[in-house]
Amino acid sequence: NAGVTQTPKFQVLKTGQSMTLQCAQDMNHNSMYWYRQDPGMGLRLIYYSASEGTTDKGEVPNGYNVSRLNKREFSLRLESAAPSQTSVYFCASSATGVETQYFGPGTRLLVL
Amino acid sequence: DQQVKQNSPSLSVQEGRISILNCDYTNSMFDYFLWYKKYPAEGPTFLISISSIKDKNEDGRFTVFLNKSAKHLSLHIVPSQPGDSAVYFCAASAVDQAGTALIFGKGTTLSVSS
Q1: In this complex, is the C-beta atom of A56 within 8 Å of any C-beta atom belonging to chain B?
Q2: Most CB within 10 Å of its CB: which of A20, A35, A36, A76?
Q3: Each residue of A48-86: pLDDT tens digit?
Q4: Pairing state between β B108-113 and B10-14
Q5: What is the percentage of chain B residues whose pLDDT exceeds 90?
């Protein structure tokens, strides 16, 4: 049982380039989330999807878009990467919006 | 304005002793609290949780205490082991919020020496 998987594990981008971070879960969870973690900070919510077909902004959504492709997959897109988006990105899922969230291993993104 | 605060960035404890990690919150709507443990280059892993209807939850060496009047919770690890060395995040949520996400503290780095 893989749980939550994320690809890629590491990526280097130049300012202005675009990319999509992929996330998939095999736990049949309804809710999925994207967080970023920066040094000295906790995890901050970028976007979430309470259920298939819905997405909502979190605390730091600017510069990002998301797609809940199906129940299993939730992607995060950077249309025009900026150095301020250098961070570690974590995807998480939960059975419903009020239960324990389970995290993927993270994607480390460096924007030059 | 931080809704979940972990005021101690780091804690050092000797193996076998008790580790106490603290967390304060400001939002009185929070009613579900969790602790996550994170090793370098890995995602956070769920450790233990507590609902606001309880004041204590225990799981093996880990116990979480909740003081609602003080808006304070703590994680006790007894006995501490070197493998417990990690960053510990406190998180909170409000059950009545649709699509609830977790609000995290900034974390406390625990170092357990042998």
Answers
A1: yes
A2: A35
A3: 998 888 999 988 999 999 999 899 999 999 999 999 999
A4: parallel
A5: 82
Question: What are the phi and psi torsion angles at B97 (to 5°)?
Answer: -95, 120
d(CA A110, CA A103): 21
| pLDDT for position B93 | 87
Give the tokens for residue A22: 């992929």
Interface with B, mutate which of A100, A102, A107 (most B CBs under 10 A): A100
DSSP code for A56: E
A106 in contact with B, Cβ within 8 Å: yes
| CA distance linking residue A103 with residue B37, whole number of Å | 11
pLDDT value at residue A34 = 96
